[in-house]
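Subject: complex prediction, re-run

Hi both,

The earlier run crashed halfway through, so I resubmitted it with identical inputs.
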Amino acid sequence: MIAPPFTPEHDLFRQNLRTYVERELAPHALEWDEAGIFPREVFRGLAELGALGVNYPEEVGGSGGDYWHVVVLAEELVRSHNSGVNMGILVQAQIATPIIEEIGTAEQKREFLAPALAGDKIAALGISEPDTGSDVANIKTTARRVGDDYVINGAKMWITNGTRADFITLAVRTGGAGYGGISLLTFPTDAKGFSVSKKLEKVGNLSSDTALLFFEDCRVPVRYLLGEEDAGFYHIMTNFQGERLVASIGAVAGMQQMVEDAIRYGNERGAFGKPLVKFQVWRHKLVEHLTSIEAARWLTYRACDLFARKEPAVKEISMSKLFAGDLMQRVVYDCMQLHGGMGYVVETPIARAFRDVRLLTIGGGTSEIMKEIIAKLVPGF
Amino acid sequence: MKILTTVKRVEDYESKIKVRPDQTWIVTEGVNYRANPFDEIAVEEALRLRDANMPSEVVVVSVGPAAAATEIRSGLAMGADRGILVKHDAFVDSDGVARLLQKVIEQEKPDLVLMGKQAVDVDDNVAGQLVAEYLGWGQATFASKKESLESPEEKAKKPGLKLSADKKSVQAAREVDGGLEVLEVQLPAIVTVDLRLNVPRYASLPNIMKAKKKPIQELTPQGLSVDVTPKVKVLKVEPPPARTAGIKVPDVATLVQKLHAEAKVI
Ligand SMILES: Cc1cc2nc3c(=O)[nH]c(=O)nc-3n(C[C@H](O)[C@H](O)[C@H](O)COP(=O)(O)OP(=O)(O)OC[C@H]3O[C@@H](n4cnc5c(N)ncnc54)[C@H](O)[C@@H]3O)c2cc1C
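This time it finished cleanly. Structure:
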């Protein structure tokens, strides 16, 4: 791949999505952050565009696109200027659901996947727990087999879409300690004994609901098991790849937008008799960032290319998340600084981005964990 | 009924347009293209009329380079049935476009032709009128919706153009100073559409994928026996004057004084 294989179909999807995001989402960015939630209709609206089913096959209600359509989706969502919405949508379309398509039964696809892609059911991914995030192999939530049911007990923490999810792609312990005892289930949240304990107040991504969830003797039928019993850890690690990749793509597009906004602002805003961009210190800083962003983009596209061709991509994906996530902290800092006082006013997108981007080195696997993964994949350590 | 619509490939209004140093045209490298927004409104209206009057067909026609197939696909992805590309790489002036369309229309024999009132690239606003003239057909220009774009009619995706019961004529409302003028034109006719006729639908990804399989027929000016040597020559293109920095005024009195004495607008 020398250039990303965007065809006219990708361009048309981008055009339509962009218009939709700018017209239907962006105007509400502040309002939804203030409300701490975005309307359910956003899922439906994007579903109608085929943006939730983007790369899923038509048989399960997908749009029949390829991974480069996912790239377009993650890039264009950024124009909503609302990271909470982006996260909610990407969890729905690319984080909680791909594993159902890969290893789910026909029934699971019909009952959970298809309605999620249609925007009728909200999906969440439940892996992290109050006591364990990075150390996934150590989760404590148990699923005990009783007859034809699993009985689930435990808690899940920081679950995106958690207050209103209709189902959760849930990691549970079915076997002994360690990674070999973990399974994945599709868990309908109308199960008795399930409760949303708390909506967490966060630093950023305010419009996205993040929850602490409790499971008390919740019964789900054994047929809701995803894949093989005790093989869940492997599937979780596979699933993380898609999650990290959309995070990287969104980060690159987000940084590009921040710098472009900063350049625009720096042209409009003057000090000491000239526009800010005419000060060499700012010009240099911004083009340095553009250069790094370009490097991040090509590393990410490289990871996308491998991932799209189903080649091993764990190293490249981890590198792109590490690189883009860390870079974004510096880009947002400088772009905010260029905005001066307006950069500290929440009305300005860069001010909200400043809060939101902190998540990039934490969620979906921290920067430290990315480094651990990369170190395992290069010889010499 | 058969409805023919036209779609022009134009520079994306979001792209930064720069004039070439020799001032003969704009810099085309790095510019994004899209379908002329007025034409999208024409396609939308055609689809609504088709769906309200089945069986009907919507044909999308574009004059332009091979890449203009993308803008035809855009119309097909919205729901049009098939496309025709009159392929020509060089500049064609509005008269050339009109003469090409005349030939295509004579071949296709549609009942109604819907066109954007103008293309947002050069804003000529003459192609529709010329086509009507060359065909000797009636025309209604700048069709608008009587109801607002927030109205229940628009929400229900009702056509703004009203087809008569016998399908022999169509009514179009046009915005004129301070009101609406309603015209009834005999079919076949040319109708050009204004911004406030409808809100075009989005093309969903599944429909974009399906559009790939819809047929696009390719024609050429030679094949249609039309000489498209431009009769209008672009002598010079100039960028709009650069915006000069604004000033801050301390109070309303100074503002009024400056508007009067310097800007001379009041
Ligand atoms: C807004 C938000 C949304 C989220 N959404 C979801 C969701 O939908 N579903 C879900 O399951 N989870 C979700 N999470 C959880 C997220 O995945 C975890 O927070 C993340 O994986 C980190 O885990 P932790 O919080 O337990 O941190 P810890 O694992 O406790 O880590 C704390 C610190 O120690 C470092 N550390 C840990 N291990 C090592 C090591 N081996 N070497 C060096 N340093 C190490 C970490 O890098 C970090 O800096 C979300 C989190 C947030 C904040």
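The first strand of chain B starts at residue 2 and ends at 6.

- K.
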